[in-house]
Amino acid sequence: MTAFSLEPERLAWCAELRALAEERLRPLAGKGEPGRVNRPLLAELGTLGLLSRLFTSGALDLCLMRESLAHACTEAETALALQGLGAHPVHTHGTPAQRARWLPRVADGTAVAAFALSEPDAGSDAASLSLTAEPSVGAAPTVTPRRAAPPAAPPPAASRRGERGGAPDARSEARSGPAGETAASDPPPSLATEPDGPDGWRLTGEKCWISNAPEADFYTVFARTTPGAGARGVTAFLVPADRPGLTGAALDMLSPHPIGALRFDAVPVTADDVLGEVDRGFRVAMDTLNLFRPSVGAFAVGMARAALDATLAHTARRDAFGGKLKDLQSVAHQVAEMALRTESARLMVYAAATAYDEGADGVPGRAAMAKLLATETAQYVVDRAVQLHGARALQRGHLLEHLYREVRAPRVYEGASEVQRGIIAKELYRNLEDR
């Protein structure tokens, strides 16, 4: 990649991806049920070899995949991204046994992955996780067994085992991001760990706003193993969905992809389930987010480009005031602004992804800038596109109606816009101190 353009081979690959998304993936997406995992769509992504590329591609190629798929089929883009988000910690921090068991099934679309970070009282403030893991007798002496206090948010209205758990399955909810409300009963304790044998923990508590929950086949779960240690006391666990005590329920969200809440009732985990090192799970989470944040921006750019293309076609053919809409200066200037912002966001996403691939300094700040600019840009572009289309764009089933629902969540999940501004400012002042 040069400073401002892609190589011809990559441009051709992007065009091929858009064609595949339109011809082979969109029809399958149309047959899916909103809020449910679309397993036939996942299987086709596996057949096309796109899921396996999650484990061989750099950040730039991941961005190109997400942007190209989003341009033609947001459902396919999201299905691919959620597989990557949930499985990347296994790929980079898992044991050989963990990788051998799960990654081939993720790659062929037969196993659904999920990234379980957010909690009712720990969304953007991920270091404040209260789902805790208390060690069993004989485990590391530096970890103090503790049961956390109940979360403020109510539990899911219906607590159900995930699809692999034996009981009826339910729809699921989105990335570790936006929230919804659930019916109240007695609130569960925060996700906590209790002793369970010489080398294990038990997880008790709740996770919420988790994409692909409760239908995923396994979850990358982040729990507190050392109370009072902030980010340094969190451990990542690989938790299969059929573990006893793990239940979940779908959340009815604005965005059409699956999102849900999970409840942990003394779910057993052992040292064999740890991803990376005990008390080093926050690093696992941040490694994953630093890779995926620019690609969230790529998803947003794909949606912005789809909205811009639709607006160009509409304003060029729509008759109004004795001419075409595009002949009105107020309309033409809005379209120009949409294009300007979309191209600026695309370049920043590519720059952040390239910095990640090259191991450059300042990747967290660059990734935050890319996600912030691209998601805010997509919101603006889609909103302008709706305005220029008029009422037809609000009709159920219209492309822009679909994009309008899709475009809001990326400004919240994987770090809200306000969090990204905080990261950027922190990186700027750190650089000032290092001069």
What do these coordinates show?
The structure is a single chain. The protein contains ten helices and eleven strands. The radius of gyration is 22 Å and the shape is globular. The strands form three sheets. Strands 2, 3, 4, 7 and 8 form a five-stranded antiparallel beta sheet that branches. A four-stranded mixed beta sheet has the order 1-5-6-9. It has a two-stranded antiparallel sheet with strand order 10-11. Helix 3 runs parallel beside helix 6. It is of the alpha+beta class and 435 residues long. The longest helix has 37 residues. Strand 3 and strand 4 form a beta hairpin. It is 46% helix and 14% strand.
Name the features.
single chain; 435 residues; alpha+beta; five-stranded antiparallel β-sheet; four-stranded mixed β-sheet; 14% strand
Cα Rg: 22 Å
Helix amount: 40-55%
- Could you describe the largest sheet, including whether it forms a barrel? 5 strands, antiparallel
* Arithmetic mean of pLDDT: 85
Low-confidence stretches: 138-189
* Individual helix count: 10
Number of extended strands: 11
Shape: globular
Distance between the termini: 30 Å
Question: What class do helices, strands and sheet pairing give?
Answer: alpha+beta
Beta fraction: 5-15%
List the helices and strands and how they pair.
Layout (H helix, E strand, L loop, with lengths): L7 H23 L8 H9 L11 H14 L1 H20 L2 H13 L4 E4 L16 E3 L56 E4 L4 E12 L6 E7 L9 E7 L5 E5 L8 E12 L3 E2 L5 H37 L1 E2 L2 E2 L4 H29 L5 H27 L9 H8 L10 H18 L1
Parallel strand pairs: 1-5
Antiparallel strand pairs: 2-4, 3-4, 4-8, 5-6, 6-9, 7-8, 10-11
Helix pairs in contact: 1-2, 1-3, 3-4, 3-6, 3-7, 4-5, 4-6, 6-7, 6-8, 7-8, 8-9, 8-10
